[in-house]
Every structure is written in structure tokens, then in C-alpha cells.
Amino acid sequence: MTIPKTPKPKASAKQGCISLILTIALLLTGWQLARKFLFQHSIPDYYYTGQFNINPYALKVNALKVGFKNDKPYIWVFSYDKNFDRSYNYKIDIIDPIEKKLIKSVPCEQTTSITAGSQMSDFNWYKDFFFVGNEILGLESRNVDNGDIRENNETLAKKFPQLVTGIGKVERNSSCEDCVQITTKDGLQFLYFPKQNILIGENEYKKTEETLSGFNAPIDTTSKDFELRYMWGLTQKEQNIRQQLYLTKQYKYILSNSSFPSEVSRFEEMNKQVINIDSDEKRYQYMRTEKLVTLVPNKIFLDGKILASDKDHCIVLHNQTIEKDAKKIISCINNQGKVLWEIISPNFESFEKLEGQYPQLSGEIGKNQVVLINNTYQNKAACGLDIQTGKLVWEFIAY
């Protein structure tokens, strides 16, 4: 006897629709997870949107900065995009330019103001960390290679007993380049120097600087209160655009502001003033006197600008001739006054849109590399050159 088969119920249209939605959702979730895994180290796509901001929601670059750790360069890209509610998202993308990969993205404070971008890029490189201190971000010190926080308002307040009530406000200090002003919640004010990790009252700082920086005051060059600073300079243009490059050295109070070297014409006069050292006062005066180390011989820099320097090297951007459309030259000079290399009209992609008499170029020097940073409005880029030969090591182009 044959048993009739029971017909299977047909799936309703509603069930089919639900299955389709679930399948699509699973596929999208899987794609997002795969994309996150496969492209987690991909460098973001940045866009120059032009003078008229053609695509206001594109990811744009506020500034590039570079720091070193163990002589390896790390690029910090300060970027932002706009939400549909007109607020802005700011972040820091930390990039390895040699391996060409994104190490980490660090989100910053969301704000409704585009001008906040300048405060986001207040980070400055010191040794192996970047530091910022302003009203939006407060106080932050982050590792140069991964962006992890090593110091902030909370950790600093625990480190120094003077800040026991907590940090109420952090802001720039107009009279001090390498420090920030901290106001505690109960109204006490201090200056914090991140490079030296020193916290000092503002009045105490002024009094100490005045005491230790006096021209005839006693000076102990072995003391931790003093350091020997090397300063590169170009002779003033005035009526003559033919500039010379020179290097000086001078003992300075460790917390004193960065300073520019004296004019070359003053050194002969300065040395005459202390030629007869017949007292302790004159000996201290001589020890404090700025001294000329090198005046680069037989080399003229037309309309020059120092891009980067340390005690061993100086990188100068200058013109080949006096015409407005003159070719640009990048020169590297060592502390003996020798020109190690020159690049005439650099044809690197990172310098593609160098325009104007004073392009937005800067630089940082590591142990074996110099990094040139191009923050021209329509060409955000950087490149690494061998410090001894000028050979191109790597390039990074945001746009």
C-alpha cells in the first residue's frame, strides 16, 4: 500500500524576505569584520578639497609632524572630517613611513569648531614622545611610536604634591616657549616643562632665571641647572640678501627660552670685552659669553631659511639666483662648515607643489636621517633623506 507524501508547506513571502535580510546582514557584518582585519593597518585616504571645499565631508589634513624613536621616524597626521550635524571629528593617525602602514588612530576631542584643529596639532616632539598642553586637550604626553598616553592631567597630579587638589586648567604661556601653564582647582599657578619633567611656580621660575642668567653671576657648567646650547643662524638680510651661515655655542639656564644666535658682527666686540680675565666676575662673564664655532666659508645663501638643525648639522632652504622664480636649493652643512650635499630643484613627489617664496617647509633631524615636512595647503607630505648623502630613503604623501 503506497502512503501518499505530505506536501511541504510553501515558505511565505514574509519568511523569504526575512531570510534575505538576515543573509545580507550576515554578509555585511562578515565584510566589516574582514575589512577591519585585512585593512586595519591601511593608511587612510586623505583629500584636498580645494579652495571652495568641494567635498566638505572628506577626510582632510590639518598638519603633519614627525618624531623619532631609536632613529626610526613616525609621522603624526592630524586629520579631521565633518559630520552631517556640522560637528567635526578630529584624530591623530600614527604612520610608519618606511613600512607604509598605519600603526594607530587616536581620536581627539569632538568639537563644533574647525579652528580647534590648530589646537589639536599643538603636539610637539620631545625625545621619544609628543606633548601638548592647551585648553581643549588639557595636558597629554603620548609615545611617539604608538600614541599611548604616558602622562595626562590625572597622572601628573599624582606625581607632584603641589597639584594634589587636581588640575583645573592647562593653557599656553606667552612668556615661555617650552612649557605650559597649569592652574590647580584651588587657583595655584605653576609652569610645567615636559622635556625636563619639572614643575615650578611661576614666580619662583622668574626669580631663578634672573639669578642664574645674570651676565656676571657665578656659573657652574657641571651643574644640572646649565646646558651647552648650539645655535645655527643666518646673517641678517637688511639690504643684502647674500646671507652667510654660522654656528655658535653658549651655556644657558636649562629652563630658559630657546634663543637665536647673536649677529656675527658682534662676536669680535663681545670677545674684546672679556679679553683680560683678571677676576672671578670676568671669568664668569667669559664662560657665559656666546662663542662663534663655525662661519661657513666660501658659501652664500640667497634668501635662506633654516629648516632643521642640531649641534652637528643644519639644513637650509635657499634660492639659486635672485629672481622670483629662482630654483630652490636644499643644503646640508655639518658643524665644521662643510657642505655635505645639495639638492637643486628637488623633484620628489612630496615637494610637487612647492609654491611661493616661502613654502611651508620644516624639518626634524634624527641620528641618520633628516625628515623634511611639507605642510603647504594643497600638498601635505614628508620625506626622509640620509643625513650624510641626501639620498631619498622614503616618502609619504597625504595629498
CATH architecture of the largest domain: Beta Barrel
Q: In terms of per-residue confidence, which ranges show pLDDT below 50 for 5 or more consecutive residues?
A: 31-39
Strand content: 35-45%
The main β sheet shows up as: 5 strands, antiparallel
Arrangement of strands in the largest sheet: 14-17-18-19-20
Helix content: 10-25%
Work out the count of structural domains.
Answer: 2
CATH fold title of the largest domain:
Thrombin, subunit H
- Secondary structure tally: strands: 24
What's the CATH class of the largest domain, please?
Answer: Mainly Beta
Shape label: globular
Radius of gyration: 28 Å
**H/E series:** HEEEEHEEEEHEEEEHEEEHHEEEEEEEEE
User: If you average the pLDDT, what whole number results?
Assistant: 85
**H/I helix tally:** 6
SS-based class? alpha+beta
Question: Roughly how many Å apart are the termini?
Answer: 80 Å
What kind of oligomer do you see?
single chain
